[in-house]
Amino acid sequence: MSVSSSRGRSRPGSVVRGAVGVSVLALAAAGCASSSPGHPSAAGAHSKSPMPEMSSSMPMASPSMSMGGGMLPMGAKHMHVAITSPMTGMKVTGNSVTVHVRVTGFKDTCALAGRPLMMGAMAAATGHYHVLLDGSLINMFCTPTAVVSLQNVRPGMHTLTVVPALDDHAQVTASARSIRFDYAPARPLPALAGTMTMGKPSISIVSPRPGATVAGDFTVTVRVKDYHLSCALFGKPNLHGRGHWHLNLDTATGGMMGMGGMMGMSCTHVIHVSTEGLKPGSTHTLIALLVDDAHVPLMPLVASRVTVRIGKSKMGM
To answer: Do residues 167 and 113 both lie within one domain?
Structure first.
């Protein structure tokens, strides 16, 4: 899955490739910011399977390496995830699958996503987890459950992986857990196809305005033209004219196609983020950029930037 439409671009969506060994137990599934329940439920703790084989199409950090090529902080070895449901080998007849995840060894929060790591033991004190479907990144999560849409997913066996990640999205691959599930839709979703547009895709930040002061939780609103946004296609094979957008902090370059600075991703015209971890009085640049379904920025880069000042939040963050 997740073949980029532009040659020569590495694919952050293809973080892990689902070539699981023949002797591995058949396992089962879960999610992203798509919606719709309507899927069988299951109980029981498991998630003993290791990470699927990594794709050779993109460099992947070893258990001790960050995405930028440096060593992961010592505390990262204590970051763990467990998939508590669904059960391994489960048949999914709905068009989405929900995964229940338990994290230990770190505070699960999305408020610090995209921030540079703190020094020392605190570097791995916070983080989130990534969900991958057949080795392709769906999204990051910081909630006990995650939902993955099965839009444009073929019936049959699929691998779902949950992996703890640092605030800069460096993955602790040694702690990843995978399950497999059998997708047998009772009523398959109509397949989405690529689209043609009359103009060139564009994105512009509507708010906050340049020079505005933001504090605590705040909303970024964008205007997107000539590009079809879809959460259901996160991590799915690319379709021309479709994708979503990322909001980055200060930079859109670097490892993982700039995803180290990603505060979040959205398929609507708004995203809710936080100033947590940013020094009051400092200035930072918010960068909204269009990406394809595999999370790769459109090239040439289609982005909008606005510089804001960080205020003191009511909670003193």
So the answer is: yes
